[in-house]
Amino acid sequence: MERPPLNALQVFVSAARARNLTRAAERLHLTVSALSHQVRTLEQRLGYSVFKRGPRGLALTPEGSLLLDRVAPHLDAIDTALRPLRTRRDNVLSLSAMPSMASSWLMPRLPRFVARHPDLELNLDSSIDLVDFADCRFDAALRYGPGQWDGVVSELLFEEWLTPVASPSLLAGRKSPKLDELADWPLLCPEDPWPHWFETFGGAAPKRFVANFSDSETRQRAAVEGIGIALGRMTMVRPLIESGMLIAPFSERLRARYAHYLVYPQRSREHASFRAFREWLLEEAASFRATTDAADIKAAAGRAQAPKAARPLDPGAKKTARGSTRAAPR
Questions:
Q1: Which residues of 174-202 are buried (b: 16+ CB within 10 A; e: fewer)?
Q2: DSSP for 116-158, written as a single string
């Protein structure tokens, strides 16, 4: 038997994973006809069928399933090995951002970046998954966390501040809560730093919370729906307060344990698209800090300083030893 061509095996693996010729052709930038021809060529070389074609798409034959198991890991390994050696296009930026940050803070501002740099292409992956810069998929990441990750540069964008927020429907017809009466109201999410809030601003934590949710966006949505009062991150809830969907009954703000950072590997310093994005991002972060109510921050901080602006690129920026960054828990 002649050895099957590598491109035919690549087409087979893509089609087998997609279970659909059209989707596989789109991913490979081929026509469906060209992809089908590659599959037929592979089947002729092998001497057996690899797919069963039906009205609902493709299904692997037993031989095709065995071929996929044996070939796909090797093709993936080749792709991984070659990825760091591929030439990066200066007009393309690949960025990872946590979903909460992407939807509430970054997306409303991105039109300004696109208008300033119409020739740049931004690939945004919204995820809390581990970012391993060693595989060269991403140029940078926006992360909420302690600010120290192995093997990367991290630059502070802005601190995060917490304050109770509630829907207008929950507060309707009732007196707005006082600080020392907050525990009498339905509160959400005991895992949030409520004890620190009560310790800082007075009152006592309730014996029971109304509900708990595993992620920030769901907690925020629960507050909007009037289920209870949430301890909201200002970065996320500020647009909802400005739109009237939420109310912040207190002027007090509590500094969060974590802050927001731009995180990137050393190699990104030489990437033109990243440098343009970084310059714009730091401007937006500075503007966001400047428009934060200084009186609120003063009342909240009490014993803490407001964040300093990130400095220009310099070789001494904060970094450690490995090359990956993990998102904060929420």
A1: eeebeeeebeebebbbeebbbeebbebbe
A2: H-TT-EEEEEE--S-EEGGG-S-SEEEEEE-S--TTSEEEEEE
pLDDT in tens, 51-105: 988 777 789 999 999 999 999 998 888 777 666 545 566 788 999 998 889 989 9
The secondary element (H helix, E strand) that includes residue 325 is strand 324-325
d(CA 208, CA 187): 8
Write out residues in the chain with pLDDT < 70, as ranges. 1-2, 81-89, 293-330
Distances (CA, A) of 33 to 37, 41, 64, 156, 173: 6, 12, 20, 51, 66
One-letter amino acid for residue 148 of the chain: Q
State the Cα–Cα distance between residues 136 and 83, nearest whole angstrom. Answer: 7
- Return the number of other C-beta atoms located less than 10 Å from residue 73's C-beta: 11
DSSP per-residue codes, 218-246:
HHHHHHHTTS-BEEEEHHHHHHHHHHTS-
pTM of the predicted model over 0.70: no
Coil, helix or strand for 162? strand
Q: Quote the DSSP letter at residue 179.
A: G
CA dihedral defined by 160, 163, 166, 167, rounded to 10 degrees? -40
Query: Residue type at 206?
Result: P
φ, ψ at 127 (rounded to 5°): -165, 155
Backbone angles phi, psi at 220, to 5 degrees: -60, -45
Phi-psi region of 173 (alpha: psi -120 to 50; beta: other; left: phi over 0): left
Eight-class DSSP state of 104: I
CA-to-CA distance for 278 and 183, rounded, in angstroms? 42
Q: How far is CA 212 from the centre of its chain?
A: 22
